[in-house]
Recover the amino acids of this structure.
């Protein structure tokens, strides 16, 4: 058997050059917008959290940034917890809520489709995190069209 002679990795080690940025650090020009859409189920994969973090980053780069929760995406914006709402039953349980709250506290807007909220997932507007704006199902398309018209950066997230 070959012997492993490398020193064991330890906390603080790194495997990549995380300081070597290849592309320019793009910042928004005056009035530029961004829209990040979510048609994905909470806790079914990492994309929900990753794109909330992308929305936070877009907002910090100066884009007027909005998040659209529609279809199963509304599950990212509902209150949850165990044994009571707001409690974290496991590490990371409140990641969606914590990061959506951070996004909104930094000026981002979050919209949730009322149809998906009630008809698909059996929740009402009182289930939404504070600050999330409920919208009519017809507004889902219009919100996207407004952002297309305004030449916005659009990040669509669609998972099944």
């Amino acid at each position: 058997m070959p012997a492993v002679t490398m020193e064991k990795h330890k906390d603080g080690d790194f495997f990549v050059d995380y300081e070597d940025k290849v592309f320019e650090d793009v910042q928004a020009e005056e009035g530029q917008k961004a829209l990040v859409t979510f048609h994905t189920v909470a806790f079914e994969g990492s994309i929900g959290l990753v794109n909330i973090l992308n929305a936070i980053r877009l907002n910090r780069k100066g884009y007027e940034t909005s998040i659209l929760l529609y279809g199963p995406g509304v599950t990212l914006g509902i209150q949850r917890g165990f044994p009571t709402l707001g409690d974290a039953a496991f590490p990371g349980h409140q990641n969606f809520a914590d990061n959506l709250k951070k996004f909104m506290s930094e000026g981002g807007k979050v919209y949730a489709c009322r149809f998906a909220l009630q008809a698909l997932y059996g929740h009402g507007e009182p289930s939404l995190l504070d600050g999330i704006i409920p919208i009519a199902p017809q507004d889902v398309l219009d919100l996207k069209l407004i952002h297309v018209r305004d030449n916005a950066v659009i990040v669509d997230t669609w998972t099944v």
Observations:
- Residues 47-60 form the longest helix (14 residues).
- The two ends are 45 Å apart (CA to CA).
